[in-house]
Amino acid sequence: MEHPLFSLSTRPDRRVLSYSHNGASVEVIPSVKGRATMHDKDVLIYCVSQLMGAINAGREVSRTLRLRAHDLLVATNRETSGDAYKRLKEAFERLAGTRIITNLTTGGEETTRGFGLIESWEIVRKTRGGRMVSVSVTLSEWLYRAVLAKSVLTLSRDYFHLRKPLERRVYELARKHCGRQPEWRISVATLHKKAGSVAPLRVFRASLRRMITENHLPDYALAEAEGDLLVVTRRRPRKSPAAPVLTPEALAKARALVPGADAYALEAEWRSWWEDTGRPRLGNANAAFLGWVRRRAKP
Question: How many Cβ atoms sit within 10 Å of the Cβ of residue 175?
Fold first, then answer.
């Protein structure tokens, strides 16, 4: 989340991005199809969610995941039309084609190397009409090592309702730097750099002001402060202790209650809700979770 690997543009972005900050350097080289976008990143978020869920449940994991395309689209708040499957295929192409050269540290190990965001992908099965049913995705070793080291943060499920790339990027940075703290302050100039924006600073500042006025980022509120600063505050203080780990059986029941949903994303959303709303200590976390899923699934 710290570094601007993904394009904020909604059009093919074929510019090479060079970025350095606090000793870390990143060069992002797009393919002829353009650099991977903030919306393409949904694929990686979904893959990481599946891996983290498997790790927490004690199951064996590998860099290669077999995914149901429909579940991925539903979990990331996308349409399931024919065009949506086509756009998903294009996202795989940009993710595999975007190359990164960096000295970032993951899993306590610093390396300087080049790699793609995903190593490879394959449509495993299609319907007679040509839609993909399941896909196989092999993550880069760098990303996989970050997951194994648990160097990843959960995101609000409402993140996928943010349509503007800059909104997503600002939310990610808020989640990274503000986290559970009550407040985080950053200069607009530094945020402009961290966001990876290529817009002039005055245009970027105007976009932030619109975000402040609209005030719909999940979990965090934005405000301006003197000195050309952006102030990020958590919307609610944390009141409850963390909920216990759920069993694989409870997650399987949640999938049955909400077909097509990402059970691990549901768990993360429930856990955040429980901790933020000051509920009492849980006697049966699995039952509490499933009760919350049932209420949430009601029309």
Answer: 21
Q: Taking 80 as the threshold, does the pLDDT of residue 278 lie above it?
A: no
| CA dist 117 → 6, 52, 92, 128 (Å) | 10, 18, 10, 30
Closest CA to 267 of 242, 291, 246, 298: 246
The pair of structure tokens assigned to 187 is 């200069």
Q: Which pTM value belongs to this model?
A: 0.74
At 41, give phi and psi (nearest 5°). Answer: -60, -20
Retrieve residue 291's tokens.
């009760």
- Residue-wise pLDDT for 85-134, tens only, equals 889 999 999 999 999 887 766 566 666 778 888 999 998 887 777 778 88
List, as own/partner pairs, every contact residues 27-30 make where C-beta atoms lie below 8 angstroms and the sequence separation is at least 24, other chains included.
27/100, 27/101, 27/102, 28/4, 28/98, 28/99, 28/100, 29/98, 29/99, 29/100, 29/101, 30/94, 30/97, 30/98
The 10 Å Cβ neighbour count of residue 60 is 6
φ, ψ (nearest 5 deg) of residue 100: -125, 135
Exposure of 7 in the CB half-sphere (CA atoms within 13 A): 24
